[in-house]
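In this section we walk through a basic example: taking a raw amino acid sequence and producing a predicted 3D structure, encoded as discrete structure tokens. The instruction is simple. Fold the sequence below.
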Amino acid sequence: MNFSASLPDSHTLRDLLHNEVHARQTIKIKSPSQATHIALIHEGNQKDKELNHLTTLCQTFNRPSPEKDTLHFSDDFGSFQLQWQQHGEYSTYTFYQHRLNSHPFSESILCEIPEEWLKSIPGKVMVAINAAIIKSESAPDFQDIASHFSDGALVGAEVASGAALAFTDFKIQPDGFSRFVIYDRQLNSRQAGRYLQRLFDIEVFRIMSLQAYPVAQALMPNLTRADQDLLRITTSMHQLDIDDSQLLDDLTALAAEIENSFSSTHTRFVKTAAYYQLVEQRIHELKEVRIPGVQTINEFLNRRLEPTINTCVVTEKRLTMLSERISKASQLLRTRVDITLERQNQSLLTSMDKRANLQLHLQSTVEGLSVAAISYYTVGLFNYLAKAIKASGIPFNPSLVTGLSIPIIIFFVYRGVGNIRRMVSKIHE
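The resulting token sequence is shown next.
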């Protein structure tokens, strides 16, 4: 008996998140089979273009079209199966055909697909792989294996704990595709699909991880020059007669250049680290067992890929460390400039204090002179007034009265000038 509980409404993302783990199903493959895997870099937002392009193919073969906004699609077109997946910055198209010519790679699955449709797939090809799964109960002859590849070193191992053999040379063949050959000893259909997908992933992630290498190569000379410029600036900071403002301008320009380089390359370096981690994970999932005289995929990629990835890692660390050093140098130089400005301000304040004291003395002197001058002219006017009163017939001594008025006039003039100074001071406050 099934029990149905009354629960709150489901979150809008519940079904989407729950079904994501089942979305990218591995196609079952029976030996013998062949597959072609193509990875294309996105140029802008091409999701709608890809879906429209897939719809065109489905209409050509009278098959159901992919749903809107889907990120993965697979269907059986009769003569072949197609699996399309859209990833962060690239998309993959995998074509499967459950039959194989007696001479693998002599015919291509892509012959079943309209040529015009293939040419107009949105994006730029980054990886193109042909793979063949051959049923083999006994151990294959190494000369037969090598005949499927160029003259390069053969790379391979037993995979799936010995249930199959996988070989490649990691080279682009004359037909424009790299190749994988899997000899199926006792793989079931799901295992065959999973291990083939892992090999495809290794090649795609390997190439995607290397996108940072040209960036690192272009960045290294700039980092060397910037390192030398920073050394020159920090050495000049020890000199007392150097122009700090010019050093600060040089350091600011250098910081802007490094931050621009960091901003434009950081995402690429982060993606490279993530892709390389996926490469290592997929190699581990192969469960390789060494074949005497043949390099394993793990050995080959460790020797050839790891130094390149290390170059990218070292370049990113140099860029990060240089940015941090410039930041520290900027703080030191700004502290030095601030101390210099503080000393200049202190010196200016001391000078202004001296000038204020001098001005105060001058002001006191001027006030004294002003009191004397005003008193002199006032006494003169009072003397003229006394003489005029005497001339009018009033008997008194003008000189005596004028002399006695001098202290009184000086007192009132001094008080008046003081009051005016205090009023002006209040107005300025």
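Looking at the output, two observations stand out. DSSP finds ten helices and eight strands in the chain. The longest helix spans residues 306-391. In the next section we compare this with other chains.
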